[in-house]
Design a protein that fits this description.
single chain, 6-stranded mixed sheet
Amino acid sequence: IKVYQRTYNGFQQNISILVNDAGEAILVDPGCYDRAEEEDLKAFIEELGVTPVRLINTHFHLDHVLGNQFVASTYGLKVESHTEGEKVLAMAGPSAAMYGFNGYKPSPEMKVTHAHGDVISFGNAQLKVLFVPGHCPGHIALVSDADQFVIGGDVLFRGSIGRTDLPGGDFEILEQSIKNHMYALPDDYTVYCGHGPTTTIGFEKATNSFVRG
């Protein structure tokens, strides 16, 4: 699996585009908000020459779902995530109004759910689902053991962690998610973050001052 990222909206959120050998793509956390960002994503997908086959959200905070409707309608995809995220998704509309995203197109409802330990088949590749709450309810991460990476959403950043001061956030729960699941991965696994640059599990275990390995 090859991973590409594009950065969108005022929160500088990263969409991850996972591409397998068959030219199929999973779009994770599409944060494209306005017409220019939607067209940028569409053009990038066309440039890659891939066919989107799944839309997965690591979680349902507003900045990660701004492009859900566009992606779902453009490519005929269903929204997938963890069932505990439904209440978070319901708050996206009020959050959009609060933050001034007046052009927010409401995300479709979640139609496919994933639980901890599930395996998502992706052509000849596989992705393992980790349930890693704490930043918000229903947060998941996607691991490729064959390609040694994790799509971590807003759990772990380079030198930081996801904020826990939003509704449903809990530092102790997030700390356990990181220690028990993220830091249990091999040190050389790349972490594709929901915001900011990539990092590695080993680098964060050794240097992250919020949660040390």
